[in-house]
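Complex 434.
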Amino acid sequence: MEKRSWSSQWGFVAAAAGAAVGLGNIWSFPRYLEQHGAPFLAAYLIMAVLAGWPLLMAEIAVGRDTGCGARGAFKELCGSALPGWAAECASLLMMGFYSVLGGCCLRYMLINLAGVFSGGAGGGLGLFLGYISNVPLSALFTVLFIAAAAVITAAPVRSGLERFSKFAVPLLALMLPGLIACSLRLPGAESGIAKMFAVPEQGGIAGTIDMLGDAACQLFFSLSIGQGVMALYGAYLPREASIPKCALAVVAADTLIAVLAGFAVVPAAEAAGGGGGTMMMFTAMQEVFASLGSWGAMFGFLFYLLVLLAALTSAVSLLEVVGTWAGAKAGRKQAALFAAALSAVPAIAIARDGLGFGALPEIFGLSWLSAAELASEGILMPAAALAMAFALRRRSGSELLRRQLGYAAGRCTGLAMRSAAVVLIAAALCARIL
Ligand code: PHE
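Predicted structure with phenylalanine bound:
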């Protein structure tokens, strides 16, 4: 893919925050918060500071030092491109399920837009199951989502990805408080707030390990670590930009938006009768919008629009990574087209499987969605991050960190690569495999 360059360090921060803030913040963070309550929030925040931030700094530093994306960076760092391939394959798989969920947001946004004019939209589990079991329809919206992401990816970086992220991420942060205010006014919302701060029975040591594993996986997914995205973006970060500050801004924005999304989604899900499971964002939330008539439809339209914007900036980062497979000579348009076509393969398979609600035979007892999640978030991402942490523990790795991050931040990050980061990675690996 053609070389990019950010207009400034803030251009980089906007794009990296755009990659980080996505469905992870709005689709998965609130459901973990609802399930595990305050201990999850505390574990997540501690892990974000002690391991997420250092890992993010390390990946950006590796990208800037080597000037390459994951494959090239790993080749230089540890003599083998294999962990780089693992990271980039994780991006492709993730783009598969991400596009189906993104297409679903697009569909729900349109359903609510229509509802604004017709006095309200429908909702609940029936609407969701009806959509995902209609394979031609869900495949169509999936492809539309991929096409929208490809159009942004194909544009020159400064006028495409950077400009889009600069408006999408702040817009999301600005609109969330309005959504929270609406959610909190719903009858029954208080029990959602109580659940977020409750200390539920975690089910002994096994339950606590499970909760810690969920927090670790969520952190990887949410900060987009171990997929080659941050290394690739870091490769074009100007030398004078401070990586510790940029990475801190990304972690802070990502965490803030996740917590705000928790306040918007969990109370609304409780108001809709509680639970909602993995697809709470489409079932419980839409039930709330449906119950509020035209205003609810307006509220729903804005909500899904926001989620769609967030999902698009993340999808663009995934396409950027997969697009590097088109080779160094490919232009941005060719690379984006190549990446979009390749991503459509897992995406359509997952849409065909009805997002895990089961039209295709299972893979080792898992739905296609769960298998793609397990392979990308649970195995490939942590494995690539582990390889990076080990490579950075060598002398040349420590020197790289000090060169890119400065003496103090370089040493602290090196220390984290030997301790907290490894614990986090191990927790993420064990959580999904065991
Ligand atoms: N961080 C994104 C989210 O929270 C997902 C993602 C992971 C995007 C890895 C790119 C790379 O939704």
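The two ends are 38 Å apart (CA to CA).
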